[in-house]
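New here. Your pick:
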Amino acid sequence: MMAGFGHTTRKHPRSRSRMGSRSKLDSATLGIIGVICAVAGFFVLGIVLGPAAIICGWLAMGRRWSGTRNMPALIAVVLGAIDTLLAIVWMAGTTGNGGMMF
């Protein structure tokens, strides 16, 4: 029997699921980006870069606390939390009543 047009024997000859997506960031890259954001946040824009580091670290850990952890991801979460906390304390300290006229 001869196969006609559009009637192949295999449904998906080149499945894209085996090739993987190139647009996704892997966990190691997200962990390193988180560490860079956390370290940079100690010097500039800590209130923005701290939470960004926490989010990147959290995504690099696979959005869970249990199981094996990627070390850069854990460092990003911890440093991002410290960075955010220090930025909040710094902002609360600068908004004291020392600069008000009344």
Q: What stands out?
A: The mean pLDDT is 79. The chain has three helices and no strands.
